[in-house]
Amino acid sequence: MSLKDFKHKILPIKDQLYRFSLRIVGNVAEAEDVVQEVFIKLWNGRGEWEKYNNIEAWSMRLTKNLSIDKLRSKHNKVGILPEGFDLTSTAATPHRQTELNDTVNKVHQLMKSLPEKQRLVMQLRDIEEKSYQEIAEIMDIPINQVKVNLFRARKQIREQLINTESYGL
Predict the structure, then answer these.
(1) CA-based nearest residue to 153, from 104, 120, 105, 109
(2) pTM above the 0.85 mark?
(3) What is the residue extent of each domain of the chain?
(4) Are 37 and 80 within 8 A, CB to CB?
(5) Is the model more confident about 99 or about 41?
(6) 94-167: which CATH number, 1.10.10.10, 1.10.3210.10, 1.10.760.10, 3.10.150.10?
(7) CA distance 122 to 116
(8) pLDDT digits (tens, 9 = 90+) for 113-133
(9) Is 86 helix (H, G, I), strand (E, B) or coil?
């Protein structure tokens, strides 16, 4: 595998790898370190790329494993998404923009309380927009488990949001 192949296949997904790592480790510097370690491992193992069907999924799996290792070694909690990660529309009124920001922040807070698998599956599907098959490969779990974890995560978030809204919190 050449430097050109690395630039065309790996570098375009660096932001996805970073966001995914940040969701796990919760620290900007540590997420950057994880992505750098992933790049080093991928570059050093470039001769073995042919044995992987989906190098992007393999990169995400490496990111997940290294992030979890870093988290376990530091005993940190999962943090927030990086600044500038905004799911809101720029055409919204200031009032609507504030409501949307509050809802997005609440969802991120609620995601922190989910079990790890549910949280990671939801991150990969709803934020990174990965397919069920890609998530199954990244997480190394059956596709049915991906669907079950995603369903349960979304259901729990939805119920908690409804409860929060009905109490005016």
Answers:
(1) 120
(2) no
(3) 3-74, 94-167
(4) no
(5) 41
(6) 1.10.10.10
(7) 10
(8) 899 899 999 988 988 888 999
(9) coil
